[in-house]
Design a protein that fits this description.
The protein has 2 helices and 4 strands, in the order αββββα. The chain has helices spanning about 10-25, 65-70; strands at about 30, 40-45, 45-50, 60. The strands form 2 sheets. A two-stranded antiparallel sheet has the order 1-4. The radius of gyration is 14 Å and the shape is elongated. The N and C termini lie far apart (about 40 Å). The mean pLDDT is about 80.
């Protein structure tokens, strides 16, 4: 297995953080942040990171169902 320089991971790390910020801006918390829940798609240096397993998402507003809060 070959290790890659850290700068190659910056775009996908940024995408991951942007997804978390987007959820937070909607009043949601992503509760299952682990490497297995970040999916990668694409090829040839054009990789996209996506969050998976949204079952751990909870609303920051008590009594609110997150599935009706998210858009």
């Amino acid at each position: 297995h070959t290790l890659t320089p850290h700068h190659h991971h910056l775009p996908t790390t940024t995408q991951h953080l942007q997804a978390l910020v987007s959820l937070h801006d909607k009043g949601l918390l992503y509760g299952d942040g682990k490497p297995a829940n970040i999916l990668y798609t694409g090829a040839d240096g054009n990789i996209t990171a996506k969050l998976a397993d949204m079952g751990g998402v909870t609303s920051m507003v008590p009594g609110t169902n997150w599935s009706t809060t998210a858009s």
